[in-house]
């Protein structure tokens, strides 16, 4: 007798995975592969009748057919990842897209900020946007959250922030702030790729001109709340002190996750201002669900910026960065934490500090592109 799956057009013999939560307010976990299997294995003869000679677009189960339909619109025809110019998340490229008129037509603007004059250690993050653009096959479907955000959002890579001087750090920051002030007056949500982490302070200042003070979820090895170094307040160890003092970042609605390393004295401002600091060691002690729950409690329902420094990851997962610190998050942990933020009022986000010169096999760029995609999913899930 034929296997019931062969007789059932709706494939009701397949058991669907039911999502569960880590705690009452944490996002869905990925479906178990075991739960996606048929109740009874299909014998070899039936497997041959069902699948032998089948094409890539011949998907019999309605769930998997629906998932495929979210990603592929032309049967088994697939985009060649090694052809055509590269863009952030393979989004359409919009030449000259950093104008108010263009941005008002977008839900999400993907932007490069190729500036690393603020680094205190190894340079090279100016090449981060180019490295992340070179990564293909990220998305378009997020299997744990079960969303395909580009099917619902108008998204484009609008190029890089134009800066007047590659030599003048303060002038670069003035250009970044002005650009994001213009973006903030449009409907587009900016998701940016740096560049060193100093860019985030000026992005926040620009957005706050129209979108008000914001909370923050910050993934990093370092608090980045230091003071003036060698005459400059624009280095990558100080953006969030500057943002708090400028009144654009609400420290009581800010949480920093993954903090570690020997520069403990630089954490003082984070604690003094009322930020919530979760050290890398705390993530393991508290558990992922508790960390996510704390993040959601801290940021609440207000406008929130999500910033991801790749050195928040352990150097095993992100060697290509300027200031690596051992003992960091794994990529799986980072993805789970970002997924848990589903529902926050994200008004912008970034991934920073990718330095491809130190990145064998594009390991760091791959991780950065995936984190950028997770930010895009958060935007979709808020809409």
Automatic annotation (TrEMBL):
Keywords: Hydrolase, Metal-binding. The keyword ATP-binding does not apply. GO terms for biological process: putrescine biosynthetic process from arginine, via agmatine. GO terms for molecular function: agmatinase activity; metal ion binding. Its EC number is 3.5.3.11. SUPFAM superfamilies: Arginase/deacetylase. Pfam families: Arginase. CDD domains: Agmatinase_PAH. It comes from the Bacteria. Transmembrane segments: none annotated. Coiled coil: none annotated. InterPro entries: Agmatinase-rel, Ureohydrolase, Ureohydrolase_dom_sf, Ureohydrolase_Mn_BS. Belongs to the arginase family. Agmatinase subfamily. This is Agmatinase. It comes from Sphingobium indicum BiD32.
